[in-house]
């Protein structure tokens, strides 16, 4: 039997697989049925609610400009019946960082929250630490 | 007795209070001791581990350019002994969106993950939904 961590990483990989294949049925299957879900696409305000989140993915995945995407450096942390993965996303060659939150529902790990944002290597963000940390 | 949701929102508010006051001791107190923590500051790659996350906040909060910050529109979802809040942040007048993940440890809700990113209202992000959703 796979560990919780391995199971969560498998579901995380399935999320990016569904995204990459533009597989809306698989995407629908991955999101929680009971818990309230939310999603923050890069640069966008939060989308809240299962129907709204799936509509946002439908719009992205059926767009002619749907990006090529794959996941790297995933790391899972299990917190009982919830778990989160922090990972990097390669989206049309740009690197983003994402947090995916999962909950165990009816014996399966399902997504409840996804937030992704760009890594701006060459810009000084507002909340940047200084270069010298003592 | 406050509901879990109210307790989580109070800890979420305490996080932004510590940030606004540049109160490193309060910030330290807010983060989980046992669970593995991670943090994604806007535009930055993930920071992993309690010492590293707190060092990143120390660098931000002791910088002369530490931003003015306050939280708006927080919404909490409780998932047993974990919970997440999606909220907006006003940072030096710019609006960001953030996800904060909490875990119940030793009877208190503590932060395990924070990710914030800008809302880019005037730019078309890579993963933008089209304007017309059918």
Q: Which features would summarize this protein structure in a list?
A:
6-stranded mixed sheet; 134 residues; alpha+beta; Nuclear Transport Factor 2, Chain: A; disordered C terminus; homodimer; 6 strands; globular; 28% helix
Describe the fold and architecture.
The structure is a homodimer of 134-residue chains. Chain A is α+β, with helices and mostly antiparallel strands and 134 residues long. Chain A has one domain: Nuclear Transport Factor 2, Chain: A. Chain A is built from three helices and six strands. Chain A has helices spanning 4-21, 24-30, 50-61; strands spanning 38-40, 47-48, 69-79, 82-91, 94-105, 108-118. In chain A, helix 1 (4-21) runs antiparallel to helix 2. The longest helix of chain A is centred in the N-terminal third of the chain and has 18 residues, at 4-21. In chain A, 40% of the residues are buried. At the A-B interface, helix 3, strand 3, strand 4, strand 5 and strand 6 of A face helix 3, strand 3, strand 4, strand 5 and strand 6 of B.
Element layout with pairings:
The structure is a homodimer of 134-residue chains.
Chain A: H1 4-21, H2 24-30, E1 38-40, E2 47-48, H3 50-61, E3 69-79, E4 82-91, E5 94-105, E6 108-118
Parallel strand pairs in A: 1-6
Antiparallel strand pairs in A: 1-2, 3-4, 4-5, 5-6
Provide the number of structural domains of chain A. 1
Label the CATH architecture of chain A.
Roll
Name the overall outline of chain A. globular
Output the structural class of chain A: alpha+beta
Q: Extract low-pLDDT stretches of chain A.
A: 122-126, 129-134
Proportion in helices of chain A = 25-40%
**What radius of gyration of chain A results from the CA coordinates?**
16 Å
């Amino acid at each position: 039997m796979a560990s919780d961590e391995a199971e969560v990483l498998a579901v995380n990989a399935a999320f990016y697989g569904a995204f990459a294949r533009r597989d809306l049925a698989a995407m629908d299957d991955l999101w929680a049925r009971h818990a309230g879900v939310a999603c923050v696409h890069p640069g966008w305000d939060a989308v809240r609610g299962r129907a709204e989140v799936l509509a946002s993915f439908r719009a992205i995945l059926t767009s002619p400009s749907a990006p090529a995407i794959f996941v790297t450096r995933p790391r899972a942390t299990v917190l009982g019946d919830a778990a989160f993965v922090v990972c990097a996303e390669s989206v049309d060659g740009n690197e983003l960082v994402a947090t995916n939150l999962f909950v165990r529902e009816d014996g399966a790990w399902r997504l409840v929250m996804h937030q992704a944002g760009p890594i701006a290597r060459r810009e000084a963000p507002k909340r940047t630490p200084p270069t010298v940390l003592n």
